[in-house]
Q: What sequence folds into this?
């Protein structure tokens, strides 16, 4: 038997706190378990079917069967993907027959040119995979970018047709290489280099879509790695969906929550203190507040827009409206919890009513008030999404709402996580700060931040003790005298 | 108490500080491709160049009409039919620019197996009641020899219709792009069973301004209309297509290639074409005729009670002025 100097605490002791690593393990698990569930649901292949993720797209003429526009990275069920490919093969077959019979139709020269440009555009993944075209598209270079792209693709097709270039394996199917050769013969008959003014309007052959097998998950369940990758791209402003301005929107959301909350604090705390101290004000404010809080704040959305307009004000007003009644009731209640003897003592010493509130009540409840406000800040966050839908959709909600409705949940989850993390971290920091602000009000072990603060404090103290100030310190007259009768 | 007073004053100031100066013209616009086109003028700084101080407010379509009705914006992008509804229920407005007519982007999308409006008999359709999708569905039903009593309408905000279709709780939805496209993509095998391409001119998409601002800021609105036709010229030039797609798709955050078909479903009119539509006449070729049809529909289906005076909602003078 091993000798223990300290018996191990039981894991499941009723009403006893765990300590040390025993506390740390369940804490870590509380985060790890949900993530594991997510991973399991997303990666377990037997739960889902096989899908194809499109790596090269095309546009079938059969709009009946394929009314939507499919782009690279879209996923399709296996059978649907196969019929998608077959539809293009059919289109090409008909075109070939028409060409041989000399009956190729051109609806309009402009539409024909555009359709051919689209075929060139569809070839982009191959150009990128082989490093034949590396220019990045930015907001400034759009028109030059496409000119350069078409020119490069033209040149590449010429070289592929002549056998001067070989695509890396797996980047272009044999079938599509044959189509490229046929197309090059058609395109080069008009002009050997790309010239938008001298471009073929007669249809060229469409590229057969290519795709790779992936686990087919429902749109609302993107895999964790996809969410991480999308989040990383979106936050860095490199989203596939164009500029999402995440940080700008984040700042806007923060402004809404914080302004609404501060407004609440400014107006609510004085009222709540009065209600908590004087029964008269409690009777005056609380019954209506209690009634008002049951009316859902979002129900006032349209009214708030009619009063405050469509920008930030109605949103701040909604956060205010949703938080204010809770604040009044909560803070008033906290105020009432102040021990009666304290108030009695102050009154015995002759404190006037104003003094009673400012010198006794406020300092007395400060630690609890701080805690209330921490909880209420969390409360304010819960109104954010509803608030930002009023008038002009703004802030992070714009991304959540717009992308959610397009089923781009891989772009939605990073934003929701960002909100969650912000709230969680703010709360943790505030909870830590409480130990620093109100060391007398916390029991047991101090938080890490408070311990650091104390340690720094003690170092400074020690340093000052070594070299005490020489200047005489004048002791100011105590102001406590006021309270004496 | 002094402290409390300062706090209250501060709070009040915070609340009030947001009221913008009145001289900026506020225009509400939403995700209809014909209105997203304003984005080109915004991005290229053409409004500033024209010397007009405008602020475009990006909103959900119905929210933008609510904001206009509440008097919070000076102008809003609406369809001619919805302008009547907004006018009858909240606040009248005047059309000064006709942007486009819907040419297929508004569509009824049926679940797999639903092939035509006739298949919808006794079935559920999700759409935004009293607004443009409702009108389109009624028209579609009429064309199929049916009426509203043959179907069950589930009132749904337009941008939520794709999710509702995907949930399989309804048999069809009615929406416009990009929502209709999302629905087609998310529900494999779903297809459009009736689109605005079958009734071109039923839905004209326009810029409606408030009668007061038209009176007090007419010069500014002329400048705005001029910028619109600059945008139209830009869009009609074949060489600009990729650049235009980049700007337009960026506004609604879809991929440019996915956006391209939207341009076919929204017929953006040149000034000459718009002038023809501005001519008074019967039928869908004239905005007067089209609006009259909307008015009749709205009264018939009790969206509002009495027919409206259509003339006050339409003012061709600005388009005619800049055409000279």
A:
């Amino acid at each position: 038997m091993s000798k223990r100097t300290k018996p191990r605490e039981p894991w499941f002791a009723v009403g006893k706190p765990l300590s040390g690593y025993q506390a740390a393990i369940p804490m870590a698990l509380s985060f790890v378990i949900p993530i594991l569930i997510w991973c399991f649901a997303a990666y377990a292949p037997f739960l889902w079917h096989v899908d194809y993720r499109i790596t090269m797209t095309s546009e079938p003429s059969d709009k009946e069967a394929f009314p939507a526009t499919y782009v690279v990275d879209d996923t399709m069920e296996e059978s649907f993907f196969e019929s998608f490919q077959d539809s293009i093969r059919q289109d090409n077959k008909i075109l070939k027959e028409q060409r041989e019979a000399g009956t190729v139709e051109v609806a309009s020269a402009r539409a024909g040119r555009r359709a051919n440009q689209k075929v060139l555009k569809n070839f982009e993944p191959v150009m990128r995979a082989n490093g034949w075209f590396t220019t990045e598209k930015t907001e400034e270079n759009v028109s030059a970018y496409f000119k350069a792209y078409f020119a490069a693709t033209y040149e590449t097709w010429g070289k592929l047709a002549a056998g001067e270039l070989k695509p890396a394996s797996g980047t272009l199917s044999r079938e599509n290489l044959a189509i490229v050769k046929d197309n090059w013969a058609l395109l080069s008959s008009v002009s050997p280099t790309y010239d938008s003014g001298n471009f073929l309007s007669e249809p060229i052959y469409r590229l057969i879509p290519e795709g790779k097998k992936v686990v087919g998950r429902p749109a609302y369940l993107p895999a964790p790695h996809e969410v991480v990758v999308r989040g990383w791209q979106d936050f860095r402003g490199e989203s596939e969906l164009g500029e999402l301005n995440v940080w700008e929107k984040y700042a806007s959301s923060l402004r809404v929550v914080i302004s609404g909350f501060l407004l609440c604090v400014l107006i609510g705390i004085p009222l709540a203190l009065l209600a908590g101290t004087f029964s008269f004000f409690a009777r005056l404010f609380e019954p209506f507040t209690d009634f008002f809080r049951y009316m859902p704040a979002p129900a006032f959305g349209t009214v708030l827009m009619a009063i405050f307009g469509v920008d930030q004000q109605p949103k701040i007003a909604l956060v205010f409206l949703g938080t204010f009644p809770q604040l009044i009731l909560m803070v008033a209640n906290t105020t009432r919890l102040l021990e009666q003897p304290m108030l009695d003592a102050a009154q015995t010493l002759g404190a006037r009513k104003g003094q009673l509130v400012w010198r006794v009540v406020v300092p007395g409840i400060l630690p609890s008030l701080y805690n209330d406000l921490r909880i209420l800040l969390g409360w304010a966050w819960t109104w954010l999404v509803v608030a930002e839908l009023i008038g002009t959709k703004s802030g992070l909600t714009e991304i959540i709402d717009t992308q959610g409705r397009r089923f781009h949940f891989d772009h939605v989850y990073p934003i929701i996580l960002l909100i969650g993390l912000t709230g969680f971290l703010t709360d943790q920091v505030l909870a830590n700060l409480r130990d620093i602000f109100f060391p007398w009000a916390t029991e047991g072990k101090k938080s890490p931040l408070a311990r650091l603060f104390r340690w720094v404090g003690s170092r400074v103290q020690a340093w000052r003790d070594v070299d005490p100030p020489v200047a005489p310190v004048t002791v100011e007259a105590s102001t406590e005298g006021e309270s004496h009768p | 108490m002094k402290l409390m007073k300062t706090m209250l004053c501060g709070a009040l100031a915070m609340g009030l500080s947001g009221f913008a100066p009145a001289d900026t013209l506020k225009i509400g616009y939403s995700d209809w491709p014909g209105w997203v086109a304003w984005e080109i003028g915004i991005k290229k700084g053409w409004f500033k160049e024209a010397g007009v101080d405008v602020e475009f407010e990006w909103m959900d379509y119905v929210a933008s009409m609510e904001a206009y009705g509440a008097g919070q914006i000076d102008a809003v992008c609406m369809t001619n039919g919805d302008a009547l509804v907004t006018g009858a229920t909240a606040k009248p407005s005047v059309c000064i620019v006709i942007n486009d007519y819907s040419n297929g982007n508004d569509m009824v999308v049926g679940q797999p197996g639903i092939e035509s409006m006739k298949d919808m008999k006794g079935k559920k359709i999700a759409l935004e009641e009293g607004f443009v999708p409702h009108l389109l569905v009624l028209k579609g039903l009429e064309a199929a020899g049916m009426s509203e009593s043959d179907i069950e309408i589930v009132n749904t905000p337009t941008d939520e219709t794709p999710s509702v279709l995907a949930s399989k709780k309804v048999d069809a939805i009615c929406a416009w792009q990009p929502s209709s496209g999302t629905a087609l993509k998310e529900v494999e095998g779903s297809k459009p069973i009736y689109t605005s391409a079958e009734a071109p001119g039923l839905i004209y998409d326009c810029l409606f301004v408030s009668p007061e601002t038209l009176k007090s800021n007419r010069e500014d609105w002329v400048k705005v209309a001029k910028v619109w036709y600059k945008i139209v010229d830009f869009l009609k030039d074949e060489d600009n297509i990729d650049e235009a797609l980049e700007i337009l798709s960026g506004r609604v955050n879809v991929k440019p290639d996915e956006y391209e078909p939207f341009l076919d479903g929204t017929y953006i009119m040149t000034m000459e074409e718009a002038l023809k539509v501005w001519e008074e006449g019967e039928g869908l070729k004239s905005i007067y005729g089209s609006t009259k049809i909307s008015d009749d529909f709205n009264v018939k289906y009790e969206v509002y009670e009495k027919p409206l005076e259509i003339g006050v909602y339409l003012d061709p003078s600005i388009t005619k002025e800049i055409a000279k």
The longest strand of chain A covers residues 49-56. Chain A touches chain B through 58 residues (CB under 8 Å).
